[in-house]
């Protein structure tokens, strides 16, 4: 519960504090989170720390989420490792980076597919691991990632799209863990 619950707080807290440190030069609508973690950014250490902590949270959640199918746990751990990679291979202060973009893209993909890979078709499965909610979460994250790419390509509002999809990706593990805890509580015998 702790690692999955901290993930969205660390992500949003990291970008909020780093944006304040960056000041009015940073535009959260048109600029990505990676700009906040770029070398030379005023709050790069905050955003980099937030990304490192987020990656660690995903790794710990994947390790402890025993009711999920192994393929989903591996994908979630891979998404956590990619998040660590995004922090360790920051985007340059201006322009793009193929390495950073590749790692970020791999992370987006792994975090989008983990829910459907973690799903379990058994009747007594916790809600967050059932096929329908898992497929819906994967579809929502995939649509969010496509929206981000569209906004990035047309120089629109990639910052908004990225924040929406990363919030969903960081929040879904908590939803799954909470449903597993609730399911376990429902299965306890009444004394």
TrEMBL record:
Keywords, ordered alphabetically: Membrane, Transmembrane, Transmembrane helix
TM region positions: 42-63, 70-89, 101-119, 131-150
Lineage summary: Bacteria, Bacillati, Actinomycetota, Actinomycetes, Kitasatosporales
Protein name listed in UniProt: DUF998 domain-containing protein
Organism of this sequence: Streptomyces vastus
Superkingdom of the organism of origin: Bacteria
């Amino acid at each position: 519960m702790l690692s999955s619950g901290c993930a969205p707080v660390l992500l949003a807290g990291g970008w909020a504090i780093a944006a304040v440190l960056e000041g009015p030069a940073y535009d959260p609508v048109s600029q990505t989170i990676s700009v906040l973690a770029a070398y030379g950014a005023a709050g790069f250490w905050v955003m980099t720390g937030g990304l490192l902590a987020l990656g660690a949270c995903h790794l710990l959640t994947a390790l402890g989420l025993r009711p999920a199918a192994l393929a989903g746990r591996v994908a979630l751990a891979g998404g956590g490792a990619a998040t660590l990679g995004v922090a360790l291979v920051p985007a340059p202060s201006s322009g793009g980076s193929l390495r950073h973009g590749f790692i970020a893209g791999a992370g987006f993909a792994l975090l989008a597919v983990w829910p459907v890979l973690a799903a379990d078709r058994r009747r007594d499965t916790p809600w967050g691991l059932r096929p329908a909610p898992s497929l819906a979460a994967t579809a929502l994250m995939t649509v969010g990632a496509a929206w981000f790419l569209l906004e990035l390509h047309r120089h629109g509002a990639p910052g908004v799209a990225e924040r929406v999809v990363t919030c969903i990706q960081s929040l879904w593990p908590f939803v799954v863990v909470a449903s597993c805890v609730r399911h376990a509580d429902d299965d306890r015998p009444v004394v």
